[in-house]
């Protein structure tokens, strides 16, 4: 058996969050090892390889800010980076910082148990690895537990079954195939136009029509890039103190402060420019006031009428079930126009639900669709799903799943009472998915890193958020959401996409800048809301040696 001396920390996940957390802890002299489910680094961008997968944060600020050399060297090609490009970026980060050696890849964590006597966690993977560490930092992403609906007969399908969030590494040849896409969220909306160009026929199974705004993707102008690179520190500063981690100012004007003609012109300009500006850069009250929201929603419905030739199909594509922006607004390239193609059919599952999946296709109440491939673009068990999948058990052997039966209770989205020495990067109750992720990830990583360094200097082997701090924060998260239209939508933000999941608003809507200030104030006040207990932390700083047992090691012991 190799040296199984306890580590100071384990990091779970090797995407943006895990790579940076690993680097910070290692550089700060902690003994740390990482475990990653995928066979490579990249996290979200390792798994989501579906055709058309692309980020809808612009490339200029969808990157780390702590690597000034890479920031200058990395080519900013297109406005929105595609999945292969982001994966290459993260691989480059891993190589430059020599991080690959610190992770065990292909290691899916299935058990994490806290031992109250020692104040340490024991981690186990499905592949047989084991490690013991004082601290656990989860960097498992918010959208990494795929939602696979249980349609009757699904296992009998004789063709190829795929999920956008778990796409195979080897290219999938869809040429000449009859393909179904189930789901019209961001993943469906990105992939359908690209799949339609490859496949013989695409049948889109839509349960709820979604609003989408043109991305207006394209190559970036060289001068623009040069100017951006000259001013990186200022753009980064703005993003850190913004509402959503974008370095732009949201609008301060109400939709009703301007005339109808001006309002339409404003929406038209934002539609033409592409991107999230349509929501945040036009009027300040679109997700606060129903009447204001209606003006934007109606604008998009009119656009659908203009773009889609068949009026019946246009009608089916028009979202009417929720205010625009209360489900995550996708950005698209050619989504609505794709429904003008002769090889694309739209099926409305509310009118004609799926009855079963057969060996040869999908049967709805209106008839059978013969298929070669079924693509599930059915999303994720968001925010809580990836954490609950880790098999976490805290004080008294209580599972996280049980503790969150009524919905997640966290302090700042980063810690959970009853689960000491566990930190959750971009966990529920933090801005996370409502922000440009690298900005929120960096803030969490740096805050956690500073906290652990601070604790190392103190007799504090066990760090735990108090029940009161978590209850107050959880209430605050709900109150802030309650001031908006968000709770009106049956969205994954609300847990509404997963049968049986409690309905509670999962991310924090208070803004990236305000949230950062709050976290900084907590730190400045000696990490108020946390109790530090136990003996000396016993973290000696840098250590060497191998602290992880590998499959088979335990058998040899
Ligand atoms: O998932 P979704 P997604 N029967 O949950 C439908 C991020 N992301 O993977 O609306 C039939 O949004 C479901 O229908 P309904 C981004 O944050 C980012 O598309 O629940 N249909 C919906 O249409 C995004 O929001 C990027 O009625 C079923 C769809 O499946 C998040 O990931 C790109 C069903 C799921 O939509 C998730 O997006 C892609 C069932 N049983 C994703 N169950 C970029 O940055 C679900 N559906 C660009």
Write a brief caption for the model:
Helices cover 32% and strands 16% of the residues. By secondary structure, it is of the alpha/beta class.
Features:
557 residues, alpha/beta, eight-stranded mixed beta sheet, 18 helices, 20 strands, globular, binds 3-acetylpyridine adenine dinucleotide
Low-confidence stretches: 540-557
Q: What is the C-alpha radius of gyration, as a whole number of Å?
A: 24 Å
In this entry the ligands are: 3-acetylpyridine adenine dinucleotide
Q: What is the averaged pLDDT score?
A: 95
Shape: globular
Oligomer: single chain
How does this structure look, described?
It is a single chain. The chain has 557 residues and is an alpha/beta fold. The chain is 32% helix and 16% strand. The protein is built from 18 helices and 20 strands. It has helices at 16-27, 44-47, 68-73, 83-96, 186-198, 222-230, 232-240, 260-273, 277-280, 290-307, 311-317, 335-338, 384-388, 400-403, 437-456, 467-482, 512-524, 553-556; strands at 7-12, 32-35, 103-104, 109-115, 120-125, 130-138, 160-163, 178-182, 201-206, 213-214, 331-332, 344-348, 354-357, 361-364, 367-370, 373-376, 392-393, 422-424, 462-465, 530-533. Strands 1, 2, 3, 4, 5, 6, 17 and 18 form an eight-stranded mixed sheet that branches. α5 links the parallel β8 (178-182) and β9 (201-206). α1 runs parallel beside α15 (437-456). The longest helix has 20 residues, at 437-456. The model is unreliable at 540-557 (pLDDT under 50).
